[in-house]
Predict the structure.
Amino acid sequence: MVEHASSYSKDGEDKMKKDNIFKRFLYSQKTAPYVFVLPFLLSFCVFWIYPFSSTIVMSFQDIQPMGSKWIGLGNYKKLLADKVFLQAVGNSVMYMLLTLVLLIPFPLLFASLLDSRLVKAKGIWKALLYIPSLTSVVISGTLFRMMFSERDGSQFNLILNFFGHDKIQWLKMYPTAYFALLLIACWRWTGVNMLYFLSGLKSIDTGLYESAEIDGATGWQKFIYVTIPMLRPTLIYVLTISIYAGLAMFLESFMLWGNGSPYNIGTTIVGYLYRRGIEKNQMGYASAVGLVLLIIALVINMIQLILSGTFKKEES
Amino acid sequence: MDNTMTKIKPNKSSKIGGKTRSILTVLSTGFFAILSILVAMPLVIGFTASMRPGSEMMAQGLHLNLNFKEWMLDNYVYLLSGNEDSIKFFNWFKNSLFLTLISVIGTLILCYFIAYGLSMYDFKLKNTLFFIVIATMMVPFEILMLPLYQEIINFGLIDTTWGVVLPGLCGASTIFFFKQYMSSLPKELLDAGRIDGATEYGICLRIMLPITKPAFAAMAILTSMGSWNNLLWPMLIYKDASKFTLPIGLNTLLTPYGNNYDVLIAGSMFSLIPVFIIFIIFQKYFVEGMTAGAVKG
């Protein structure tokens, strides 16, 4: 590289030569890609590798202001016996599963309907269903918290009242608290998932439907044998991000209860991590919580990817 | 009619007669109309509540109030009147704008360069690096949150905008989107630029950047929405109340002992205005930016 550069420089002066060598090096086609990706390398080392390894290290330590000491698997052993943590894991997994049940089939159905020629004024419905995802979790959380308040005049108590039922304390019981959390999730993400599926449907070759029709397939058969297989990349993408988002849910619960729900009915894994790490300053214990979350997320996603046959395709 | 020429326009309902078809059209359009009304409800309810005293919302609970005679603009007048609360609110507004602007500009420039390097050249580390970009997306931010928070404290960046912005500048999903977009651009342009004597960086900035504009637009929208609405990380980093952004500030008003519920409800509705304006103007970019990863997989 250097020889190549110096042979090019016509100037005799040393300083100019050095300058040119550097410039040649920086501007060469071989160096340029590294210059371009340099910010990522830096950011990856400083803001990913370092925190990631330090959270692994911390999870085996008892962190005190005066210094930390190694306690081996102590944090993890304590976690397995920690009832609140186990409840939080149960809450997060349950929330994740229920969001999958609600936020994949229904948006897919809506998207298929919108993709047909039966629906008029499509643009308006798409926009209106998408709008909730633009509101911050603070605004949506505040609105739903107030609509689910235990007072007489809250929207959902008024609805109960309309059906002749007494008012209830929505956010203080298990099933209704879950209903509130799931309703926020559905409200915010139905439109988004619908648009994902819609763009997936748009990319399917209409010729496939034609040949299915020639073979005498009914609408339902076309959906099962053409639409679903062709939509697989989109389905896997939505499934993956939904699993992560569901397991890592925290802010919705934080907005409804301020991270202190009665009997921990709304405490999630990340909520527990926040409580231990930020509020109680137990970094070691909180790191162990985070790593258990990562393991759960990776395992569930692996199962999902194996079941959906993502790896099979690459092998053959 | 559909059933005479089925092969030209294949459709689920091609075997259905005209009458049933129009009934189905009315039914499914009506279904979406009802669904949209239900989805719009929480925001409509929030808006009607902002026309009433905030204390009423806390005492009675939030509900739809269509009694127009009871409506008043007092909350908004109070919010805009330049008193202590209004100064506080618009300070949050300004902080949010500033934070969004900094992170959007920084993120777009850096992610464009990184994706450019990853998609326009063949070099040793290329595939490894792209794999790393994907892998970082597999680890939720919440897991790195605590050690990152400590790191920011150690760097002395706590309570600064740098502390909020820096860790997110090279966002994996933004890099991924730019790379997806650029992989469809003709690489011959690079050689043409080289023959014309342009440097590698000149090609990147003067030839490729202008044709990447649509990707910039889509990512600008997505990044700015994310930044405008971000709560968790800024809430950890900003300690000084004068630096709070809108989500943090509005959240502080939501306490059982507060007396600023007027500002809470009117301010919440007010802070949606810029978001809606941007959405209405740039609607198509929202969808483009969002769905890029989903189709190609």
Remarks:
- The first helix of chain A runs from residue 2 to 8.
- Confidence is low (pLDDT under 50) at residues 1-11 of chain A.
- The beta strands of chain A are 61-64, 67-70.
- Residues 4-71 of chain A form one domain.
